[in-house]
Design brief:
Order of helices and strands of chain A: HHEHEEEEEHEEH
CATH architecture of the largest domain in chain B: 3-Layer(aba) Sandwich
Strand content of chain B: 5-15%
Strand content of chain A: 25-35%
Structural class of chain B: alpha/beta
CATH class of the largest domain in chain B: Alpha Beta
Structural class of chain A: alpha+beta
Helix content of chain B: 40-55%
Distance between the termini of chain B: 53 Å
Oligomer: heterotrimer
Largest sheet of chain A: 8 strands, antiparallel
Number of helices of chain B: 10
Radius of gyration of chain A: 17 Å
Shape of chain A: globular
Largest sheet of chain B: 5 strands, parallel
Distance between the termini of chain A: 27 Å
Number of domains of chain A: 1
Order of helices and strands of chain B: HEHEHEHHEHHEHHH
Shape of chain B: elongated
Number of domains of chain B: 2
CATH topology of the largest domain in chain B: Rossmann fold
Number of strands of chain B: 5
Number of helices of chain A: 5
Helix content of chain A: 10-25%
Largest interface: B-C, 46 and 57 residues
Number of strands of chain A: 8
Chain lengths: 170, 202, 392
């Protein structure tokens, strides 16, 4: 998907860089590893990452870049059972260029929780705020990736944002 | 045999994408693999090629010698052919070199072979070597090395983020003054100091 | 207006195909450009004056010999009263197993195939096939009806047998075929490609002595590509068996402006829009004047451009292509050879004292130039930086 998007010009990220950015990590990153361990899900679990882990939204860390300047990265956590992969969690975050109307969008599918009240929010979206969450329909990682590459764009007929925001991600 | 300056390392996925770029011409490429991993890499290259070019015709062959390869290539119209040449000797490469015109395969031929066999190719098949151009790469080393490289890259990112050295972070952890950011917990784990992650640790 | 593919991969693939050096040179006709001092024009001019003359052409791997042979064929096609046949003798037969008579047999086969397409049938056509591939014959032709057992007469292309007998067997159907061709044209020229890869100079000498002499005795003009070793071999008698000897050298791009311009034109004729202008000179310099390497480097640079997300080939992509080529080119070099290469690189001194030294020339790790009649030696430019680093 990423390579085709690059060939078609929808992603600025070059094919060579795509292969450097997407990795299947032999071991989950430490924080995710800890969470998996407490849930008894660590065996045969690993992460597929696209870009560097980037909580500070630092444009200098490695990421994918769209032709309109929006940029994103992701982490997908899976577990392998006899040739099949079970999806455990993912997070995709896209940051928009100044004036787009929202600074970022984060789509999370959390690891299964022990807490009932969190179960409805296992799949959720952060609409430009780390504090505000809203429930979201279940989507596969490919669907979310497709959304980040091709969706979440200003309509082609519009030459400027309808509702620019003052809150920007530098 | 001395390998003077190794050829560049490239993962199978990226190599497959380069191979797909060669389609449409008569092209040759070589992928150098450790003997112990060749079997798995042959499958991996084929899978990656199918991923990149789902509609392309791909075949994987294991000829016993150069003569058989000449015959099989001459008879084949499959666009991309992955050839297991790990057992090819000096004589086999020499035969291929002499029978170059008979190869005339309109498509991509990928020789998957060991570094030693490839050195034999370079010494005994100058015509074939010249057709390879620069499309020769080495399969990356095993997972341990890759994991170590990944760990080092993450540590470099953390150092740049905090503007601190590993030693300073460890010292702060000992002194109980390490900030509560989860990145510091990860840092300590990467350095092999998870014992410093106390109950009050980040 | 050409349709530009919207997909980057397709666009770069199409550009790369225009620079295809590994393809059949037969397809490259429309891209042919006269090189300065092209041997094809000299050989064609000599054949026009003396159609039954014989010519030996040698040159290094990838120097463009086949391209020049095909250019000769095209030039000869414009001359009335000459029929020219291009034959790659290595295509149907392993040249390492070639015995005298085999080349004559291949010429016979080639003529037979052409005549079969156009003319009336002739026993010579089948005879040429039988001689080449073998046949079943009765011990005595008049005994066939008596059920005498047939025996297999091996073909010359499946050796071995007595030399003189083979050459005579091959000559016989060829004479018949030549007679048929000469009903339409006065002169016949055969262009024989493929023997440059023969490693055994003695075997090559035998083929020349028997087959080429047979062809010239039949009044057939011959252009033969020979092994580069013939240039360095002790036996110069071999070269003297021909009316003319032609050497297709590497182009000394560091000293020969016309040669440099020629190679630049080769690139721009095939795919000018693929390259940023500053990329052309480094590609030409990096090729060392080896035409095939120029096209290989250019193709690699295109792949790098695609992978890097660039629109065209720039200096950065050329550098990457040169490094990758150089790394590959040094694989299999032994320590003693490395010393020789370092000496060539730093002082230009190269003395062929051994088979290994000759191998460095054959494998193009050392390039020989002859611009000023005096030979000049250099390492392949793609290895220059790597060798420099290794020397530290």
């Amino acid at each position: 998907m990423l390579r085709q998007a690059s060939d078609a010009g929808r992603l600025r990220t070059a094919p060579h860089d795509i292969y450097q950015l997407v990795e299947a990590l032999g071991e989950p990153p430490p924080t995710i590893k800890q969470q998996l361990r407490t849930r008894g899900l660590l065996d045969n679990a690993y992460c597929i990452v696209g870009g560097d882990k980037n909580q500070e939204r630092d444009h200098g860390l490695r990421h994918f870049e769209r032709d309109d300047g929006a940029w994103f990265d992701f982490t997908i956590t899976v577990r392998e059972h006899a040739q099949e992969l079970e999806l455990l969690a993912y997070d995709f975050e896209i940051r928009f260029p100044p004036g787009a109307g929202t600074p970022f969008l984060r789509i999370d599918f959390n690891l299964p929780s022990h807490h009932n009240e969190d179960r409805d929010l296992r799949m959720h979206v952060h609409p430009g705020s780390d504090d505000i969450v809203m429930p979201a329909p279940m989507m596969s990682p490919s669907e979310v990736l497709g959304l980040l590459i091709d969706g979440l764009r200003m309509p082609p007929a519009r030459d400027k944002p309808r509702a620019p925001t003052a809150f920007e991600v530098e | 045999m001395t390998v003077v300056a190794g050829v560049e390392t490239m993962a199978a996925g990226e190599f497959a994408l380069r191979l797909s770029m060669l389609r449409g011409t008569a092209a040759y490429a070589a992928y150098l693999v450790d003997t112990r991993e060749i079997e798995a890499v042959l499958v991996e290259v084929e899978e990656e090629l199918r991923e990149v070019a789902p509609h392309g015709a791909i075949a994987r062959i294991s000829p016993r010698d150069g003569m058989q390869l000449v015959d099989e290539l001459a008879a084949s119209s499959t666009e991309t052919i992955i050839v297991d040449t790990r057992s090819f000797s000096v004589d086999d490469w020499a035969v291929l070199d002499r029978r170059r015109s008979a190869l005339a395969h309109r498509g991509v031929v990928v020789f998957v072979t060991t570094p030693t066999s490839f050195s034999d190719l370079m010494r005994n098949a100058p015509n074939l070597a010249s057709w390879l151009g620069g499309e020769v790469f080495t399969h990356p080393p095993s997972n341990e090395a890759a994991a170590a490289a990944l760990r080092e890259r993450r540590l470099a990112t953390l150092r740049a983020w905090a503007s601190k050295t590993d030693a300073e972070v460890v010292a702060d952890a000992h002194a109980g003054v390490l900030p509560r950011d989860p990145e510091y917990a990860e840092w300590l784990v990467l350095l092999g100091h998870s014992e410093l992650l106390g109950p009050g640790a980040p | 207006m050409p349709i530009v593919p919207k997909d980057r991969l397709e666009r770069f693939r199409a550009l790369r195909a225009k620079l295809d050096p590994a393809g059949d040179p037969v397809d490259a006709g429309s891209f042919y450009i006269d090189s300065p001092n092209a041997v094809s024009s000299r050989i064609a001019a000599e054949l026009e004056l003396a159609p039954a003359s014989s010519h030996l052409l040698v040159g290094g791997v990838g120097s463009g010999k086949t391209t020049e042979l095909l250019a000769i064929e095209r030039r000869m096609a414009a001359i009335d009263d000459v029929a020219t046949f291009y034959i790659d003798v290595s295509k149907r037969h392993d040249i390492a197993k070639m015995m005298p008579g085999a080349v004559v047999a291949q010429v016979g086969l080639s003529l037979a195939e052409q005549l079969e397409k156009t003319g009336p049938t002739s026993p010579s056509i089948q005879a040429a096939r039988d001689v080449a591939f073998g046949s079943w014959q009765a011990p005595d032709p008049y005994d066939e009806d008596d059920g005498g057992e047939l025996y297999r007469v091996p073909g010359i292309l499946t050796p071995p047998d007595q030399v003189a007998e083979n050459v005579q067997r091959a000559r016989f159907p060829l004479e018949g075929l030549l007679h048929m061709v000469r009903l339409r044209v006065r002169h016949i020229v055969v262009i024989l490609d493929g023997l440059d890869r023969i490693a055994d100079l003695q075997a090559f000498d035998q083929l020349v002595h028997h087959d080429v002499m047979t062809l010239t005795s039949l009044g057939v003009g011959v252009v033969l590509v020979g092994p580069l070793r013939a240039l360095y071999g002790l036996d110069r008698v071999l070269v003297q068996r021909f009316d003319s000897f032609h050497y297709q050298p590497w182009i000394d791009v560091s000293k020969n402006r016309a040669g440099r311009d020629f190679l630049s034109t080769v690139l721009t004729t095939r795919a000018a829009d693929a390259f940023d202008p500053p990329a052309i000179d480094p590609l030409v310099a990096g090729s060392g004047g080896v035409l095939r390497d120029l096209l290989s480097l250019a193709q690699s640079a295109l792949v790098e451009s695609y992978m890097n997300g660039a629109d065209r080939v720039g200096s950065h992509e050329v550098d990457d292509a040169i490094e990758a080529f150089g790394r590959k080119h040094l694989q299999g070099v032994r320590p003693a050879e490395l010393e020789v290469l370092q000496r060539v690189r730093t002082s230009g001194v190269f003395v062929q004292t051994s088979e290994d030294d000759l191998a460095l020339l054959m494998t193009r790790r050392v390039l020989e130039y002859r611009t000023d009649k005096q030979p000049r030696y250099a390492v392949h430019p793609t290895t220059d930086l790597l060798l420099n680093e290794l020397a530290r």
